[in-house]
Amino acid sequence: MSEPAEPEALLRGEIIPVTPFQQNCSLIWDPLTMEGALVDAGGEAERLLARVAAHGIKLVKLLVTHGHLDHAGAVAEIAEKLKLPIEGPHPDDAFWIDGMPDAAKQYGFPPTRSFVPDRWLQQGDTVTLGSLTLDVLHCPGHTPGHVVFHHPASRLALVGDVIFQNSIGRTDFPRGNHADLIKAIRTRLFPLGDDTQFVPGHGPMSTFGAERKQNPYVADSMF
């Protein structure tokens, strides 16, 4: 008989709020290989790279949930500096990424460059990080090309601006759609399990179970 498969290692991480919008950039890594990724490197590139160095992590890629400036503003700078591949978001967010230089001027951010990801992501794709595999869920609504990264073994999801503690993402931006957002949360995120924690794009972590009970926009009692 073959030996049972070793259980997958649990993802490690640190949340690093960046930009005046206090966007939660997540530094995640595989503790077995110490290979890591920055999820939503929205700004303050040098500060992010200092945290990478402090943990002794080998940064191997940049992951992007969606194309808003505060989530992707430092991606081109870091990717070019370290020759790293960019994965995500879904191609429907290309127009947001293309518009980042103008958005930076509008919001008083430092000059920001757009980029083309090395790999656009789709529903059902996976992303690897060392020995870890993260599932990709396409969750449109806040932006049309928003994706979520989920590591089942760690019971953890990185959800960008899809859902927050007691709130949900704005849908009044170009190509936002409230109905799509609600559907994505209830049919793609809540089935991941009540005990699954999530890191939102802003503010404190929560669990899908807590939001099913108390979130005034998507709680079970609303449906």
Describe this structure in words.
By secondary structure, the chain is α+β, with helices and mostly antiparallel strands. The protein is built from 7 helices and 13 strands. A hairpin with a 2-residue loop joins strand 10 and strand 11. It starts with 11 loop residues before the first strand and ends in a 9-residue tail after the last helix. The model has no long low-confidence stretch (mean pLDDT 96).
Number of distinct helices: 7
Tally the beta strands.
13
Beta-strand proportion: 25-35%
Distance between the termini: 49 Å
Q: Uncertain segments of ≥5 residues (pLDDT<50)?
A: none
Describe the main β-sheet briefly: 6 strands, mixed
The computed structural class is alpha+beta
Features:
223 residues, alpha+beta, six-stranded mixed β-sheet, 7 helices
Topology of helices and strands:
Layout lengths: L11 E7 L4 E7 L5 E5 L5 H10 L3 E6 L5 H4 L2 H8 L3 E2 L6 H5 L1 H8 L18 E4 L2 E7 L8 E5 L4 E5 L2 E2 L2 E2 L9 H12 L7 E4 L5 E2 H7 L9
Parallel strand pairs: 3-4, 4-5, 9-12
Antiparallel strand pairs: 1-2, 2-3, 6-7, 7-8, 8-9, 10-11, 12-13
